[in-house]
Amino acid sequence: MIFAPVPGEISGFVGGYVFGATWGFIYSSVGLAAGSAINFGIGRALGFRFIRKIIPPEKLEKFDRFFTHQGVIVLLSMFLFPGFPKDYLSLFLGATALPFKLFILLAGFGRMPGTLMLSVQGEFLSAKKYGLLAGVVLVSLMVVVIAVKYRNVLYRWAEANNKK
Asked: pTM (2 decimals)?
């Protein structure tokens, strides 16, 4: 299985497979940013009270704790991290005081590295470049393993930079 188990994020992989890495990346990035903006708008329109009914309490509590203690840097990290539930996050952030302009920057640009990686993987699979595909997947897995291993260092760095 390719490193893209989340339906919203698999669009980069499919886009790369169908349209090639460049156009797949562009189409997927625009679509993902638009979807995030719609979810943010729903959260903004319906408010925190309604969102509490949709998002499971344990996930809502985690989002709130992260947003309160870590700030914008952690939000960017959440959009960068593949597999994080970005639809829930966008709904939740719509119910906060986060400005839309900042949100769309975080959501749009934060997803781009993962979307690019998945678009390249899709193109490699389409072109039957299995060696290159395996290389990209291995590098991706190494980055994830390193990030998990040094997550406490990353958390401390993010918190220290958030206070500046």
From this structure: 0.66
